[in-house]
Predict the 3D structure of the following.
Amino acid sequence: MTEVTQKDEDTITAQIITIDGSRMQTFKVDRHSGMGKRLD
């Protein structure tokens, strides 16, 4: 499962979540370049 939210005009945040609801990883993605960065 993944939860994707728009942080601001330029950034999307994606959280990888397990079936039981615990968060595994969070990524920040630049909407223009497509470059992602792991936040945790």
Remarks:
- The CA atoms of residues 5 and 16 lie 12 Å apart.
- The longest strand covers residues 23-30.
